[in-house]
Write a structure and sequence with these properties.
It is built from three helices and nine strands. The protein has a four-stranded mixed β-sheet, sandwiched between helices. α2 packs antiparallel against α3. The N and C termini lie far apart (32 Å).
Length: 143
């Protein structure tokens, strides 16, 4: 379910997932992922760019989602990441919907773990799987 305030999306143990209509709280998400038993925090932010393969002159991106299913989809991705890397501490997966200007963050994934290898691997898995499976769609708007 979409929420206007990031605090309403959190507080789900060690997993924070959701959709936002406004700027993603990247710094807050990275800080929240820190735990005393985790020495690594990997933060990935995917930003809107002005081109994609074969297309230039993009002026903005419009994202929409099947809101009722996004949280379940992201929670499933987080659970699979924890299954593959049981040492993972906290996982954040937040995605924007609506209009995004070039340079704005569309998605943020943060993973903490005791060691960098697990944090990097789990973060890559989370962003790759989110993009493949979450019911979120992007439309490129041209000049």
């Amino acid at each position: 379910m979409m929420s206007e305030h990031p605090d309403q999306l959190r507080d789900r143990g060690d997993t924070w997932v959701g959709l936002l209509k406004h700027s993603l709280p990247i710094e807050e998400a990275s800080a929240w992922a820190v735990r005393p038993d985790c020495g690594a925090v990997v933060t990935f932010s995917g930003t809107a760019r002005d081109r994609s393969p074969g297309v230039e002159g993009i002026t903005r991106l419009d994202y929409e989602a099947y809101e009722e299913h996004v949280e379940k989809s992201l929670t499933t991705v987080a659970a699979e990441a924890r299954s593959r890397w049981p040492e993972v501490g906290r996982i954040v997966m937040l995605h924007r919907v609506g209009e995004l200007a070039i340079g704005e963050s569309a998605v943020v994934v943060v993973v903490s773990a005791p060691h960098r290898h697990s944090a990097f691997d789990a973060a890559r898995f989370c962003i790759d799987t989110l993009k493949e499976t979450a019911p979120i769609w992007k439309r490129e708007v041209l000049a």
